[in-house]
Amino acid sequence: MMKMDCLIVGAGQAGLSLAAILTAKNINVCILERETRIGDVWRRRPDNMLLFTSRGMTQLHGLPFPGIEDGYPDKNEVADYLERYASHHNLTIHTQTEVVEVKHDKNGYSVKTKDGKVFNALCLVNATGANQLADIPVLSGQLSADIQQIGADKYQEPKQIKAGSRVAVVGDGASGRQIAKDLAATAKVTLFCGSSRPLLHNRIMGKDIFWWLSKSGLLFANYYSLVGKIMRRRNPIPCGELKNHRLAAFGIKIANRLVDIKDNNLCDLSGNQYEVDTVIWCLGYKDNTVWLTLPGAADANGFVCKNGHEEGGKTPYPGLFIVGRKWLSSRGSELMLGAYKDTSRVAKWVENYLKDHVSLK
C-alpha cells in the first residue's frame, strides 16, 4: 500500500501540468497512467495528423516546445514533448497502471489498480482527459459483421482499409474531415455531415488563429459568459482548409446527416442511401467513467463537476477534482495552451485542502 498527499489519474497534458505545480510546492504527488509510455495516446493518432495549434501555442508552463515556433507539430512531437516534460520536472509517475476502483472515507481516497496495488491519498484528481472513448451510436448495431467499423480513436492510416473500398465517415468535425481527406486517394469516401458550424482557417494575417483567440481573450472566455455561451453553441473548429467544396475537389461525396441504416445501406436526412464496405465513426468522444466507482461521481453525461473560472473542476466529493476536460472553465481548457489556467486553480484547492487535513506521509 502506497500513501501520498495527492494522487492524479492520467499523465496527459493536464495531469502533468498539475503534478509539476504541486511538486514545486513540495506536495507529495504521484500520477497513475495506464499506458506503457507517456504520450502513447498521441502516438496512436492518425499518422498524417498535424495539430491545429502551432508549436508556440502547444506547450505547457515551464518548458518551451522545440522546433520552429510558427510551425505545426505532428503527433510524435507532442508525445515526445509530454514525455520530456515529465522528466524535466522529475515527476513521480507509475505507467502501465490502470485504475479499476476508487473508494472514499474519512481518511481520504483508496485507489485500486488492475494489478492489485492500492494507493491511498487525501486528494484525488481525475486527469484522464477530454477524448477518452469514441462515441459509437446504437445505430451501429444494425450493420452486419462483414461491414468494417472503426472508431475515430482507432484510425491511424489508410492501410487499415482495403484499397477501393466504399467508406462512410460519419461526423464532420475535425477528426472526420481529416480522416476523409486522408482516405480520399485510396478509397471512395462519403462524409456524413451534421449541424452546420463555422470552419475557421488555421492562420489569419500570417498568425496562428489560436494566437488571435488568446490575445483577444476569446480562448479563455468564461464558460458562463455571453461570449462563452455563444462559442459553445456555435462550436467553431479550425478546419477552414477542409471545407466541403475543398473535400469535394478530392473526390469526396458530401452527404446529409445519417438518420438510419437499412440492409447495410446508410440513409441520410435527404433520403439518399449509400452502400458501404467500411464505416468510420467520428461523432465525438465520451468519458470513460468505469474506473471512478464513487456513487454520484459520474452520470449519463460523464463525470460530474462544476464549470467556470471560479469553480471549474470541483466535484461533489471533498478533495476530488477534475482537470483537462472540454470547457472546464473556457474553450482553452482542453488545450495545452490553456492547461495552466485550470491546473493552477486546482493546485491551490489541493494545497488548501491538505492544509486543513492530516497528511498521509
Characterize the structure shown.
The chain has 361 residues and is an alpha/beta fold. It has helices at residues 13-24, 40-43, 75-88, 174-183, 209-216, 226-234, 244-249, 336-355, and strands at residues 2-9, 29-32, 93-94, 99-105, 108-113, 118-126, 133-134, 148-151, 166-170, 188-192, 203-204, 207-208, 253-255, 258-262, 265-268, 273-275, 278-281, 285-286, 298-299, 302-303, 320-322. Helix 1 (13-24) crosses helix 8 (336-355). The protein is built from eight helices and 21 strands. It has two domains: 2-132 and 287-355, FAD/NAD(P)-binding domain; 134-200 and 236-281, FAD/NAD(P)-binding domain (3-Layer(bba) Sandwich). The strands form six sheets. Strands 1, 2, 3, 4, 5, 6 and 21 form a seven-stranded mixed β-sheet that branches. The two termini are 12 Å apart. It holds the Pfam family Pyr_redox_3.
